[in-house]
Amino acid sequence: MNLSLTPTQNPTYDLGTIFRPYVAEFPADFMPAPIAHIAAPICKMHESTSSRGATSLYNVELSRMPLLDSEEPLMSWLLRASGAVSDVVMRDALELSRNGSVALTEILQLSGRISHSDLRALDRAIFYVSNSSIYRGFAALALSHSLAHFVDFDEALWDLGLHPNDPFNEFALVKLIEDCDLVGQDKMIALRKECLAQGLTVGWALVHHHLMSGQLVKVLLECLSAVSSGKLDYDILILNVRQANYDADTKCGAKPKLTPEALLVSRLPISTADRALGNLLLGSSSIEIDDLIFCAEVALEDNRSLGVVISDFMLVDPILLQAARTLAYMLGERKLSARRSVELLEEVKNTGRPLSQLFLEGNRADLTVVSGNSLAAVTSIA
């Protein structure tokens, strides 16, 4: 494993190496929404807050935002993505710049589209992206924040937790790993900088660098979700993570098959609808664990449900996802066993029929309350 403190790989602008979107519902000639409809909401995200607040760093619209043409410069894309300049205005400015001898930035300044201070922030954003220090989607969000709140670009990066000196320092998973000493400090710094440069989540990178197993990262995120919802105290979580890590250490006499994640699941109250949803999708092979981890961390940081995030990134067939969310709820209400929930979801996956249709066709017997003796099967997924 090679984790240098200064990432050298180019940013993954479209996140294409991370996600395998479900696109079967789109026609072959499908085109993304017009740029103006994408950029406007991005800019509005920063109007009501002076810090990260409700802003989603992993904005799916930014990851899909296309170039105006194959020769569009980075500064043009950043200005459009940040909502500073519309696509219509930028097309005209680019045409004037290419047909004449006036620079694009001069045209935009003369037309009153950007100011000198905007240009300084833009130059700083271009510097970071060009040096492969910041993923350009993150740079666009920081530029929008900078322009909306009249602050320097670097100050905007600090506000959003994206500054290269200490990226993602407020992320819950980062804090937990540091508080429990699960990964060395140097490795974590290098990993966080790589995430900043490529638009990754910390959990996803931990798995792909083999610093943690996918199941452990998943369970840690579920524990943090329980903390966020008030079901679990953070200090208790830290004590249990440290103890589970020790109890599962074969050097301390633990059995080889005993894992920290299994101990955490058995000891902590982390059963939620999101956990059930994730396990159902994994159990039916409807999603890869690294994609689930990515979405789970986004959901945690954005305070959104896992199902909404998975839907935004189009990772699962919409009919299948809706069925999984329904089954997760029923599982939590003890109206289905874990095994039957997976079987029903696999039937939806294989036939393409909605869950409601399966029940109407004679499967009403599935809607029975699970007995007290079957709770172990329920909690294995829930």
Structural class: mainly alpha
Quaternary state of the chains: single chain
Backbone CA Rg: 23 Å
Q: What is the helix/strand order?
A: HHHHHHHHHHHHHHHHHHHHH
* Sequence stretches where pLDDT stays below 50 over 5 or more residues: 1-53, 367-380
Number of strands: 0
Indicate the proportion of strand residues.
under 5%
Shape: globular
Strand count, sense and closure of the main sheet? Answer: none
Helix content: 55-70%
Total of DSSP H or I helical runs spanning 4+ residues? 21
Distance between the termini: 35 Å
Chain-averaged pLDDT: 81
Write up this protein.
Helix content is 58%, strand content 0%. With 382 residues, it is mainly α. Among the domains are: 35-160, no CATH class; 166-212.
What is the secondary structure topology, with strand pairs?
Layout: H1 35-44, H2 60-64, H3 74-81, H4 87-99, H5 104-110, H6 116-130, H7 136-149, H8 153-160, H9 172-180, H10 185-198, H11 202-208, H12 214-228, H13 234-247, H14 260-267, H15 273-283, H16 289-302, H17 306-312, H18 318-332, H19 338-351, H20 355-360, H21 375-381
Helix pairs in contact: 3-6, 6-7, 7-8, 11-12, 11-16, 12-14, 12-16, 13-14, 15-18, 16-17, 18-19
